[in-house]
Amino acid sequence: MSEAESVHLLPVLPLKNSVLFPYLLMPLAVGRPASLAAVESALGTEGKEILIVAQRDASMEAPGLEDLYRAGTRAIIKKMARPDEGRMELIVMGVERVALLKLEQSEPYLKARVRAWPLPDEQSAEVEALHRAVVDLAGKALSLAQAPTELGQFLASAEDPLRLVYLLAGMLSLELAKEQTLLEAESRSEALRLMHTYLAHEVQVLELRSKIASETQSEMSRQQREYVLRQQMRAIQQELGEKDPHQAEVDLLRERLAKLVLPEEVRKEADRELSRLEKLPPGAPDYQMIRTYLDFVVELPWSARTEDNLDIGRARQILDEDHFNLKDVKERILEHLGVLKLNPEAKAPILCFFGPPGVGKTSLGQSIARALGRKFERMSLGGLHDEAELRGHRRTYIGAMPGRIVQAVRRAGSCNPLIMLDEVDKLGQDFRGDPAAALLEILDPEQNKAFRDNYLDLPFDLSKVFFITTANALDTVPRPLLDRMEMLRLAGYSEEEKIEIAKRYLLSRQLRQAGLSAEQCLFLDESLHEIIFRYTREAGVRQLERGIGRVARKIALRHAEGDTTAVSVRAEDLIELLGTPLPAPEELRTELPPGVATGLAWTEAGGEVLYVEATLLPGGHDLTITGHIGEVMQESAKAARSYLWSHAQGLGIDTAVFKDSGIHVHVPAGAIPKDGPSAGVTMAAAMASLYMQARPRSDTAMTGEITLTGLVLPIGGVKEKILAARRAGIRRVILPKGNEMDLRDLPEKVRAETEFVFAERVEDVLVAAIPSLHERLGTIRAA
Amino acid sequence: MRDKPEQLPVILFPGSRAGEATCWRPSVDIYRTRSGWLLKFDLAGVRLEDVDVEIEGCRVTVRGLRRDWLLEEGYSHYSMEIAYNRFERTIELPCKLAHPRLHLDYEHGILIIRLDTEEETR
Q: What is the domain-level CATH number for residue B69?
């Protein structure tokens, strides 16, 4: 290209917000007087050439040279029209990039001298690579923009990368500065690189856009589909003369509500919710919630109740049929029946059965329900640690549910059921609240008249509900809760009672389960006795029942195998049927050395015999206590030692022994935790016998709390302890004087067979426990 | 239009070969004759001296310039549709042109190119 050909003198058309690239056609609307004059002038030439250049500031109406970029595009006006006076529409085509050299004229329009500014020819591998990358990216952008595929092919066919870049620049909506940078690119590779950056950004934006678009699209179409289907369904139903199911549902609920006898407040609330339900479309999120709520309200037994069976004779018969003995509890139930007969509006009692496992607490509840003719519902509170479980969740929570109490009432279907709350001593407690505190309200006859469940949010009368709770031990039950309940103790059963229970209830039940008749399998008393004595160690009768069950199954197997002779189970058959007996951990020790005494302990599983062992440590000073002993028990050991020390003389003990030797007290079995004050007398007896080097009686067991002044205080669990002593073969028991009355609980036979010694002071215990002490004291007195 | 990147610019330049990219393309009719080919280019208002014809292999390229010659003082365009300035058109014929005899004619604004080849008896 010669110098003359590359320099042109051209009228200037400044462009706002846009850059014309070579090879591209661009429609333009011209309105500014100077621009119109420039176009007129260009049209007046043979070649219709004009310089198109972007102005730096779009707001400038009459830009000068300094307001224009220094790179522009030489263009040819292809078409021109005047839609109205003072305006022109053009189609211009970019021909080549030019650099502005000089402004030759500024009035009435700009005229500039320009020189062609071609990009250097470049044929490197880099350009090739960039070219391909841009084509790929452009293809991606086009497909995201859902452009016709021909366009992509067309782009790919452009041989000159620069044309591709310019073409893409015309298609993208780039900012002016970016377009101008691209126009001013020094080389093809730079231009390609710039375009690659712009395209990458564009692809990102497009991807995001299409993602958003597809998401909204799917959401819209789902709703639309549902709407259309619902409309169609409605139309079909109308055509068939059916009612709208939504309306039908509301009508049904209203009908059911109308039939119920409801308190005023409840009816108002239910009507309010119903009218809310009516207004809601079935698709609304609240709809299901209100429906479920109303269903629940309708199903609650607001006034439905069962008639109590007030026939006291019949009730007594039922209670006796189901349970042996348990006189106190049965009496209490019958008393309540008597009260109900005289005053039908009497509040139901709230009872708490406590005692070792397997003594029939839960089944007693069932039989009370049967005797009264009430519905029975049972729930276990063991491990429950969320207050909301009992009291429900407020309806504002998603997935809210009524509390268990109200649910139990609904299940029972009457407002006066018997609800049994098992394992009240095993309630948990954590940050979600204290269920025991919620129980306080539920179990308080003064408050539960208008119990408000969080879900129901309406007062419900629980005062007609007969609550019975059960517990194994009371020490974990909060005091205020204990205070609300009437405590009824179900102590462990004696051997005789167990045999009676086995004969009356367990045998027939287990034989029936094994498919045997009473004639096919006969248990002798001696074998029952053997099972109780050698194969079980419990206060209740669960293990006994299991043992009987095992025997029955073994015999059932023999029958099934063809040996159909009737069997009577004897004691000596049990080894064969049940295997070796349990090893007794504390078999009766026939001979006790000085320093060992027999104690009695109470556990959740009934009573136990335990031995307290003491030994002197010559040269030591302290009292060491081992055997997994709790604090109270440790303290009673200290009290016992201190008492003996201070009364050493009166007991004929040399005080030097306290000074010269320490003492170690151990209570086997060492792995079982033990606590409580009732081993005080046993500790004292063990230590006294050690200090005196006198053997205690091995046929005597003892229990009782001691004080530092030597008093023996009454303790609990007398019945279990005595039964445990009997199990161990001990027939002589030292008890605190204060416990004399408790002996009434014992079966007649046990009372008759056991010798009881009642002690008021430690000395009484020691005299009864250590035979040689009697003479010793006599000697001391005589001296 | 510039706000919507997914929409394509309506106007694209014609031609795909680099040389033609910024030129306008005259329309052409192509005839087979007994002795070869006849090409008719619509080149109204183009002076013959501004036309350049080039034959290379089977390719015939016509390029040139259309100048607006009705430029009198006091006239101004009210509208314009005719394309001015450079034009270029390359025709690719389906056979090789061995030693063609070229004859140019310009009549009523039409440029006529006769190409007589030796395979006339085909």
A: 2.60.40.790
Tell me the mean pLDDT in the region A340-368.
Answer: 83
Amino acid A360: pLDDT: 83
Q: Is residue B2 part of a domain?
A: no
A421's enclosing H/E stretch is strand A418-422
A252 and A222: one domain? no
Which chain B residue shows the shortest CA-CA distance from A41?
B76
C-alpha torsion A296→A302→A306→A312, nearest 10 = 130
Residue B17 lies in a domain: no
Residue A728 has pLDDT above 90, yes or no: no
Q: What's the pLDDT band for A673 if we cut at 50, 70, 90?
A: low
Q: What's A22's DSSP letter?
A: T
Asked if A407 and A397 count as a contact pair (C-beta separation under 8 A), the reply is: no
Q: Tell the burial category of A324 from Cβ atoms under 10 Å away from its Cβ (0-12, 13-18, 19+).
A: middle
Residue among B89, B3, B67, B14 nearest A25 (CA):
B14
What pairs with residue A614 in β-bridges? A665
Distance CA A182, CA A18 (A): 12
Contacting residues of B for A24, CB less than 8 Å apart: 11, 13
Mapped onto helix, strand or coil, the DSSP state of residue A152 is helix
d(CA A692, CA A90): 131
Q: Which of B13, B65, B67 sits opposite A25 (nearest CB)?
A: B13
Write out the DSSP string of A656-683.
HHHHHEEEEEE-SSTTS-B--GGGHHHH
On whether both A729 and A648 belong to a single domain, the answer is yes
d(CA A374, CA A377): 10
* Coil/strand/helix, residue A309: coil
Sign of torsion over alpha carbons A361, A366, A371, A375: positive
- The pTM (predicted TM-score) of the whole model is 0.52
d(CA A720, CA A177): 98
Nearest-CB residue to B85 (from A47, A96, A206): A47
Active-site annotation of A, residues: 678, 721
On whether residue A590 sits in a domain, the answer given is no
pLDDT tens track for A532-580 = 877 887 778 888 888 888 888 888 888 888 877 777 888 777 888 888 8
A173/B2 touch (CB, cutoff 8 Å), yes or no? yes
Q: Is A140 exposed, middle or buried (0-12, 13-18, 19+ CB in 10 A)?
A: middle
Buried b (16+ CB within 10 A) or exposed e, B6-21: bebeeeebebeeeebb
**Three-state DSSP class for A94?**
strand
The answer to whether the beta carbons of residues A429 and A385 sit under 8 Å apart is yes
What percent of chain A is modeled with pLDDT above 70? 96
Taking a C-beta distance cutoff of 8 angstroms, is the pair A737, A713 a contact?
Answer: no
* β-bridge pairing A350-354 and A466-471: parallel
Query: Which of A445, A468, A478, A426 lies closest to A329 in space, CA to CA?
Result: A468
A584 domain-assigned: no
Give the rounded distance of the alpha carbon of A620 from its chain centre. Answer: 54
Residue B3 lies in a domain: no
Instruction: Write the pLDDT tens digit of every residue in A288-315.
Output: 888 888 888 888 888 888 887 778 888 8
Which amino acid makes up residue A35? S
Please indicate if any CB of chain A lies within 8 Å of the CB of B67. yes
Q: What value does the mean pLDDT take over residues A389-397?
A: 86
Claim to verify: residue A337 and residue A473 sit in the same structural domain: yes
CA distance A64 to chain B (A): 26
pLDDT in tens, A48-87: 999 999 998 888 888 888 888 989 999 999 999 988 888 8
Question: Degrees (nearest 5) of the Cα angle A160, A163, A169?
Answer: 145
Domain containing residue A742: 596-782
Q: Using a CB-CB distance cutoff of 8 angstroms, which residues of chain A are in contact with residue B71?
A: 44-46
The model's pLDDT over A451-503, given as tens digits with 9 standing for 90+, comes to 888 898 888 888 888 889 998 878 788 888 888 888 888 877 777 788 888 88
In the structure, what pLDDT confidence band is assigned to residue B16 with cuts at 50, 70 and 90? very low
